[in-house]
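Reminder to self: tokens first, then the designed residues, so the page reads top to bottom the way the pipeline ran.
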């Protein structure tokens, strides 16, 4: 078969690239090694983790907050099997949705491991061990990433696990030792903390979510500690050994003291690494960076081999599903002869704990390092009428604006529905709005987004109304 576009991988970047290519009139195929479409995100990442986050939040509220609303429950219990069953059903609905979209857009799907025979020919090793070949004018590599680990830790997928196995546990851990205080670890750690597990977080850096504004990390740590999680920051893990139904994790304190924790599960969440194994990149003269296995691309996301593109987790930048989606659309439009654009500074980051954490643009640390003069305004959710009504008092909105022009340079939120609230900040910053612009726009009352307006008022000339 001859195609205009062949996409290898059907995660958020891959399936969006395929759909957009088909919309633009390009004959398109997508090669996926697993039985279902959607990649890590839909199968063992974004979607199942959010399903468990929602379920565990309902349980936590039922056991901790419902009484304050006048709702009394007797004999509250947890049905772990049903919770996991629902999660599986959510995944199935989403992956089936991709199959429907492929059929709607007349995209040919191939199941099997795709690899390059040459720059226009893809060999597909099918599950039954037979091989097929297809050719395409343009190839898009969208093979995503897999969980990373530490070289001295052996992942047995039973007691020492990654995020993939953490999504399928059939019991609530008694003590979950979590290596890594980043987004993935904290989200999954909070799932099991809400369900009653003791969760201990060991993080090498001196702050959780260290890539985000430090103020967000400090506030999130405070909130998660109130929920029962404990933290060992600035500690270096030296080993993890599973024996029977226990795992012992050893680590060094900042002062050099040797420590250890013993739990029934250890979740290793130290990031992800680009997945490029088996692609046969060497056959077309491509190599990957030794650290991180990233593929080098130009401003059009094209590799050094003409007509071969790469997007998502296998190229530089944040490993985020929505970043991959944007790049999938971008490459399809480049191939079609259009001139698309991505503003990488305005791709938001989100942590789906509760409260949620979301940010876009520059952090205070980045502005200071760049010697950019800025002003800041913040507003606490405990002063928001909507937040008081819902009982979500933790967190704040912080706005960073240029000291001279008042243009919004960064927005950092920790609080209820921050993941949805950040979209207003992205829109404002795409249009290069000033803090005063937002402060003069009507916001419905009572809503959480009023906190964004109040933070902009604080940044403009220190005149928030409600504090």
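Designed residues (467 positions):
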């Amino acid at each position: 078969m001859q195609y205009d576009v062949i996409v290898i991988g059907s995660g958020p970047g891959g399936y969006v690239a395929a759909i957009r290519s088909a919309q633009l009139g390009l004959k398109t195929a997508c090669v996926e090694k697993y039985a279902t479409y959607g990649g890590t995100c839909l199968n063992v990442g974004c979607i199942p983790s959010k399903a468990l986050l929602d379920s565990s939040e309902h349980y936590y509220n039922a056991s901790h907050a419902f009484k304050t609303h006048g709702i009394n429950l007797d004999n509250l219990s947890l049905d772990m099997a049903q919770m996991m069953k629902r999660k599986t059903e959510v995944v199935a609905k989403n992956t089936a949705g991709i199959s429907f979209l492929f059929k709607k857009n007349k995209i040919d799907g191939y199941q099997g491991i795709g690899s390059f025979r040459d720059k226009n020919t893809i060999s597909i090793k099918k599950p039954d061990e037979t091989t097929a070949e297809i050719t395409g004018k343009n190839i898009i590599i969208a093979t995503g990433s897999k969980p990373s680990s530490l070289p001295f830790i052996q992942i047995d997928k039973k007691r020492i696990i990654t995020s993939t196995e953490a999504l399928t546990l059939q019991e609530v851990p008694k003590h979950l030792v979590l290596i890594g205080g980043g987004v993935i670890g904290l989200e999954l750690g909070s799932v099991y903390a809400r369900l009653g597990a003791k969760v201990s977080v060991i993080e090498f850096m001196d702050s959780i979510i260290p890539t985000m504004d430090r103020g967000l990390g400090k506030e999130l740590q405070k909130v998660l500690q109130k929920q029962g999680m404990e933290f060992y920051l600035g500690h270096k893990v030296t080993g993890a050994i599973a024996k029977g139904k226990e795992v012992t994790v050893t680590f060094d304190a900042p002062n050099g003291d040797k420590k250890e924790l013993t739990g029934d599960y250890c979740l290793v969440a130290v990031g992800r690494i680009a997945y490029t194994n088996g692609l046969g990149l060497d056959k077309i003269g491509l190599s990957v960076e030794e650290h991180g296995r990233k593929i080098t691309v130009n401003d059009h996301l094209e590799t050094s081999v003409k007509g071969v593109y790469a997007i998502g987790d296998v190229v530089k930048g944040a490993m985020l599903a929505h970043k991959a989606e944007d790049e999938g659309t971008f490459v399809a439009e480049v191939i079609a002869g259009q001139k698309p654009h991505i503003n990488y500074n305005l791709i938001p980051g989100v942590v789906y704990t509760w409260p949620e954490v979301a940010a876009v643009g520059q952090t205070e640390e980045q502005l200071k390092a760049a010697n950019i003069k800025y002003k800041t305004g913040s507003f606490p959710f405990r002063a928001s009428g909507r937040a008081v009504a819902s009982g979500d008092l933790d967190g704040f909105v912080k706005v960073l604006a240029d000291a001279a022009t008042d243009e919004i340079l960064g927005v950092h939120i920790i609080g209820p529905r921050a993941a949805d609230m950040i979209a207003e900040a992205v829109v404002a910053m795409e249009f290069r709005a000033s803090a005063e612009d937002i402060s003069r726009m009507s916001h419905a009352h009572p809503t959480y987004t009023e906190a964004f307006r109040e933070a902009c008022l604080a940044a403009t000339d220190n005149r928030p109304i409600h504090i």
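The chain has three domains: 2-146+273-344, 160-270, 355-461.
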